[in-house]
Amino acid sequence: MAGKVYLIGAGPGAADLITVRGMRLLQQADVVLFDALVQPEMFDYCQRAELIDVGKRCNLASTQQRFINKMLVDAAQKHAVVVRLKGGDPMLFGRAQEELAALDEAGVEYEVVPGVTAALAASADAGVSLTSRGLARNVLFATARVGYGEDPNDWVKPVVAADTVVLYMGVKQAAEVAAALLAAGMPANTPLLIVENASLPSSREWPLTLAELPKAADWHLAGPAILLIGEVYRAKLALAEPLATAHRKCSA
Ligand code: SAH
After folding, report:
1. Which of 83, 113, 143 is the last residue of a domain?
2. Ligand 1 atom nearest to 167, measured from its CA
3. What is the per-residue pLDDT across 41-56, written as a single tens digit (0 to 9) for each?
4. Nearest-angstrom CA–CA distance, 219 and 111
5. Annotated catalytic sites, by residue?
6. S-S: 117 plus which of 88, 170, 179, 182, CB 3.0-4.6 Å?
7. Nearest C-alpha to atom 5 of ligand 1 is from which residue?
8. In terms of residue numbers, what domain contains 28?
9. Could you tell me if residue 235 is left (phi over 0), alpha (psi between -120 and 50 degrees) or otherwise beta?
10. Among 94, 113, 132, which residue terminates a domain?
């Protein structure tokens, strides 16, 4: 039996931010392999599927990417509708290319269903446009995480040059990120915004400057958090409460 694999973007968290197409496919799915950032409410759509957790979070136990690739291929031999459910959009920082390559190699048919990426949900929550006439004409989606063997500073140059930057997976490494950007000449008073749990009722935001960023490394945020950088966030700085208060709130 030759099944089809659907790589579906679950969106940033809120269950009603998946696309209608994605939701319909979940309803038809025989098996769903899902990531750590997928919220359990999403499973209400899975009426008949076997649910398999292949979640990966930085330092926690994770399923090896190679093993996930194999599971997808194997599932397609047994089931008609196989869903690979990924947080946000599958084509951004989701290792989708490796999964698609494995499916190609095995001759398995697939389709990708896009999702709302965290950058867009964080912007919606913050109420700040990623672009702004005269202030920001371009947006960079970037990450400071590099793989083995890659130059650890490859990400810095384009980040310093862009008008607005959305840095994925950067908050835990806030101190290193700040040091690298300051060393590359980004002004210390550059406005930043950290958004945690975008799209969820627990969503929180902290405006801060680049000089203050190293403090964020000690916050130990429980949810996923994203770092937004650029002049468009300057107005938020005026509203910011002192960081000490923000920190207390966040460890509560
Ligand atoms: N494919 C996903 C990104 C996966 S990388 C997407 O398109 O959104 C995981 C990173 O995404 C996290 O470390 C965090 O930086 C960001 N992220 C995902 N969900 C988030 C959320 N609800 N709020 C804030 N950041 C989020």
Report:
1. 113
2. 15
3. 999 999 999 999 998 6
4. 39
5. 35, 56, 169
6. 88
7. 93
8. 4-113
9. alpha
10. 113
